[in-house]
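Extended Data, record Thymidylate kinase
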Amino acid sequence: MPGVFITIEGVEGSGKSTQLLRLSERLRHLGVPLVVSKEPGGTALGRELRRLLLEPHPSGEAWCPEAELLLFYADRAQHLHALIRPSLEAGKVVLVDRFEDSTRAYQGASGVPDSALDRLSELVLRRLRPHLTVLLDMDPETSLQRVEVRNLAYGAEFAETRFDQAALDFHRRVRARFLAVAQAEPNRVAVVPARDPVDQVEAAIWVRVSALLRSAGFAVD
């Protein structure tokens, strides 16, 4: 049985962590062979890149958009090599918090040309694409309010706040780019309203995920 590749995307504060946890717990309860990961930081080397990318540097120096882009793709190349491709070849369901669409949304919103994103995507991903991407959609005004509450509540646990601190206009561009991807690839990207109650969001995600897994031969009933 071939593996299935599912990604969860969305703006900051859209509830990705909550929904990924709920989905992974349901799949494990059903006995589905599962690998759960994230980007950046899905491998030991990737965790070092995550720290470099997301934690503000003590010097105050910021990555230029091109350097940031290359670091994200270095993380993705290692992630694909060490974890994602082997797990799919072993017939597992691979569930990843952020992937290629986040790069196109965030780095594209930072001014990186789509042509550069296309070239790096072709080099690193080759023909691999998620079978399903769940996009948790929310207006940035609401999502950033959630982020502020979360960071105050959890403190050091959510210390990686460099993107959280970006201007509202940046987050609006990020959301627009996510939605543009969804419009261009409606068969792959399922847009789920993230302002709905948590249980309702979970149910909407499960409709799409369960249908995909049944079609791939997994027992999820």
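Summary. The first strand starts at residue 4 and ends at 10.
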